[in-house]
Protein: DNA-binding IclR family transcriptional regulator
Amino acid sequence: MPTSVPGTQLVDRTAAVLRCVSGAMPAGLSTTRVAEATRLTRPTAHRILASLAANGLLDHDPVTNRWVLGPELYVMGALAAERYDITRVARESLRTLAAATGESAFLSVRRGEETVCLLREEGAFPIRSFVLYEGIRFPLGVASAGLAILSFLPDERVDDYLARNDLTLAHGRSHGTGPLRDRIRATRATGYALNPGLIVEGSWGMGATVFDPHGEPAWALSLTGIEPRFSAERRPALGRLLLEQAHRVTQELRRRPGS
Structure:
């Protein structure tokens, strides 16, 4: 979760509800599931959901009794896309990665202390991993995209993040500080991140960082697939492809007007 600002509890709760619902699109979530996911009481969650719906930021489906994103968010997103959307730039790279490797290729964005998957391009290989999908969120350091981004933050910011977050609670001992620091060092050495089946056994991933015009690690390109497709012999070639395309997207962003 992004760092909270003192005195803004209602804003923090509302933002948490919106993120929760967005992560469950297109199916949406019931009030009970929103309350559980945000650790709010059910009455509090319902009041926030109803208020967001009254303002057009959410919709309530009376048939499924679930909450989904509303039309006002579409309008806001369309306006924000002019500045923040890189999917048009990245889509070509995802297609290149998927075609060259046969694996599923993804674009993820850093939002606060999480990554959000924005875009997916399927490869030709018939057996796929479904760990990632558009809208899913992971903490930084979890999954190859989150590891790639965390690894290229300055040391003091990595130290602060790890001191405040215990990733083992939700993601197991492999995401303890020691193992995670080892993977950060390996990522910095090769330039690309490796997730050797740490989220779902047998589902591997690799990721490379895309930097914004100020040099901040803001996005990541990644590939996922089954373990045999990520052999030690093949990983260097996959890593080079990821780095080439991540560099291409980074350079395209720097050439944008106003960058």
Notes: The first strand starts at residue 58 and ends at 61. Strands lie at 58-61, 66-69, 104-111, 114-121, 137-139, 192-196, 203-211, 217-226. The chain has two domains: 9-75, 85-254.
